[in-house]
Amino acid sequence: MKFKAIQKLTLLDFPGKTAATVFTCGCNLRCPFCHNASLVVGDPGSDNGGFTFTEEGNVDEEDVFALLAKRKGLLDGVAITGGEPLLHRELAGFMAGVKDRGFLVKLDTNGFLPDRLKYVLEAGLVDYVAMDVKHSPEKYGEAAGISGISFEPFAKSIEIIKGSGVPYEFRTTIVKGLHTLPDVEEICRRIGPDANYFLQMYVDSGDVLANREAEGGAGFEAFSQPEAEEILAAARAIVPGTGIRGL
């Protein structure tokens, strides 16, 4: 399997673990607030902020395995993100290679491919899974960037994850102008009161997808701290364990 980028060490991407992060290229959604536009559209770059970006597919899995061999005892695992990793049919084989070398695997997914998600979970290839829940069902197309998209595959993925026995989190990046407090309440009702759930503050990374596609940018912004705290309180009234990141 080939990757677009590799980060040799992160203390943030894999909760409670030290990890390397690998970035797959390509995504089946077009979320306008996506902060990794170069990964979605496959735009090659160069060294940038500690991430080694190369021509698409130029980081081979053997490069990752070589890094793991050098950092045995220093790294706990590998976080796999994107883009959407489950688009790549070679992913399960790569995960198995990581596990065979004694490392843990964390998977980030948008939940649009529930059958592939179910396979890697049931095969014991994932030790932690994080799924983005973009919006309430009625407004999913607005957040996913695909008008009229069905919520059904995402709902299926939510249930697969909750029933898998694998440690997990659901997370929603809240964006002013796109999400409202009632939207977050509806998301909470969908994932259920026992869910592990995080709100994430929107950050303009400089590589936001809509800013590439709309002249003058998309006009997205983060909620203020008081606004975010109000949304968090509403979420906790439904999903008591809700946390927030970036506030």
How would you characterize the overall build of this protein?
By secondary structure, the protein is α/β, with parallel strands linked by helices. The chain has a single domain, classed as Aldolase class I (TIM Barrel), CATH 3.20.20.70. It is 33% helix and 19% strand. The protein has helices at residues 37-41, 61-70, 91-100, 114-122, 140-144, 152-164, 181-191, 209-213, 225-238; strands spanning 2-3, 5-10, 19-23, 52-53, 59-60, 77-81, 104-109, 128-132, 168-174, 197-201, 243-245. The strands form two sheets. A nine-stranded mixed β-sheet has the order 4-2-3-6-7-8-9-10-11. It has a two-stranded antiparallel sheet with strand order 1-5. Residues 42-55 and 212-217 have low confidence and may be disordered.
The CATH architecture classification is: Alpha-Beta Barrel
Beginning-to-end CA distance, first to last residue: 36 Å
Instruction: Sum up the overall morphology in one term.
Output: globular
Widest β-sheet, arrangement of strands: 4-2-3-6-7-8-9-10-11
Structural class: alpha/beta
What is the overall pLDDT average? 88
Write out the CATH superfamily name: Aldolase class I
